[in-house]
Amino acid sequence: MKEKRKNVKNWNWKWTRKPKAYSISDEKIEIVTNPHTDLWQRTYYHFRNDNAPVLQLTTSEKYFSFIVKTEFESKVRFDQCGIIMYLDSENWLKGSIEYENEVFQHLGSVVTQNGYSDWATTEIEANIKSMWYRFSRREDDFCIECSKDGQKYQQMRICHMTKANDEIKFGIYACSPEESSFKAVFTNMEITECQWLAHDGQAPDEE
């Protein structure tokens, strides 16, 4: 995959569930969420929600990183936007901030495999309205990182995706699971060489 840093409008984006309101320019993408849109499969809540708008690129490249800055006006519980790899309704992963209340929100990730979602989170202040994400692929393994300034990244999640054998789709999403609508803005998008370096520490245990 060639490195990309400009002219986002000309990237080969494809929608899965196009929102009613959005815009794509050379420098940014804006999505206005529709109420009652969400992504979740089965675990704990016992429902299957699969109607959030997702905008993605397709690649068979096994080593790369995708970087994006998000800015958002979330205000109702579970309003969210972030980075995603959506393979199909039962196999996907995402990293985002989900609004909770005026005190805190959830910075977290969801990995969904074979129709079951999990959710790993940490609480952050509710007044944070911007976050950078970096999504990296090393063959069938993936890493999501976040950053407040686009310079220093912190690991959110490492996972293996069994359905990501060759071609994958990755990109951005935004949704409002409850009676809400807000604008999510995505800028500073880049595709680079893989920034998630190969492990060079502990050797595998001997059998």
TrEMBL record:
InterPro entries: ConA-like_dom_sf, DUF1349, UCP022704
Coiled-coil portions: none
Residues annotated as signal peptide: none
Protein name (Swiss-Prot/TrEMBL): DUF1349 domain-containing protein
Protein source organism: Sharpea porci
